[in-house]
Amino acid sequence: MTRSGGDAIVVSDIRKSYGDLKAVDGVSFTVAEGEFFGILGPNGAGKTTTLEIIEGLREADSGGVTLLGENPWPRNVGLLPRIGVQLQGSAFFEKLTAREQLETFSSLYGVSTKIVDEMLEIVGLTDKANTREDKLSGGQRQRLSIACALAHDPDVVFLDEPTAALDPQARRNLWDVLRAIQERGKTIVYTTHYLDEAEILCDRVAIMDHGRILAMDTPAALVRGLDAPTRIMLERGSMSLEQIRGFIGVDDVSEDDSSLTVITRKPAPVLSALAEHGNLDGLQVRTATLEDVFLDLTGREYRA
């Protein structure tokens, strides 16, 4: 994490309703300069509306936002050169190459087009500089969208589900781009449905549902706070259930068609006992993750 001190964003009890729907219902948090801050939640949780209020794209019904020391609403044109926004659905100028797209965005902000080559390199599109936007793959278009949001070298970057619909390789490549952005001292605020991604990239996360923040901390602290058991998976038939139940630290053990699953809150003595019986081959250990925290807070029901 690269922090230069101070808060880049201060959100104080913001609220936004549409009729009876409370899209944002008393949300408050701060984001430090240089921090990578994630806003997580199921569909309809209020993530995008919260971002739009912070960005100055939407007016809150009540509450306040300070962005880089200024109020983003009414639309604050003085902030525009200092923020970069990548929306869920990005639109590009028709029939322009990747380089031309970036040159156009740079010129709109009065920035020298000399930065274009640097942006193309950061997002890994140097070899696609002369390729038309509509000929790029989905992952390449996402990276170009982020490059356009960075073309004027903003201090704060907002990314709304930047890795949505990307294949695993493109998503991992984009992680490197996001890390490179933060290493340049930028503050990043983003939303995602990929909990593994948030756990790896974010300094802190806020988990939202029904317009409210349910929990906020570092991913590691949230996982520790869940106090979930460890699951140890063995190949079925490697030991009997009775043997495993006799080990110190075993809370429960179950069996399915392919494996044995040991539940424990004291994995060390259980693993030691398994090692003594020569049963470490093929063993898998699963501890709690940010996804477990998310599901514990928001539930498991399907959200359209």
Automatic annotation (TrEMBL):
Classification lineage: Bacteria, Bacillati, Actinomycetota, Actinomycetes, Pseudonocardiales
Protein name: ABC-2 type transport system ATP-binding protein
Annotated keywords: Antibiotic resistance, ATP-binding, Cell membrane, Membrane, Nucleotide-binding, Translocase, Transport
Ranges for domain ABC transporter: 9-235
Membrane topology, as annotated: Peripheral membrane protein
Biological process per Gene Ontology, one example term: response to antibiotic
Subcellular location: Cell membrane
SMART domains tied to this protein: AAA
Domain of life according to the entry: Bacteria
Main location: membrane
Gene Ontology MF terms: ATP binding; ATP hydrolysis activity
Family of this protein: Belongs to the ABC transporter superfamily.
Coiled coil (UniProt feature): none
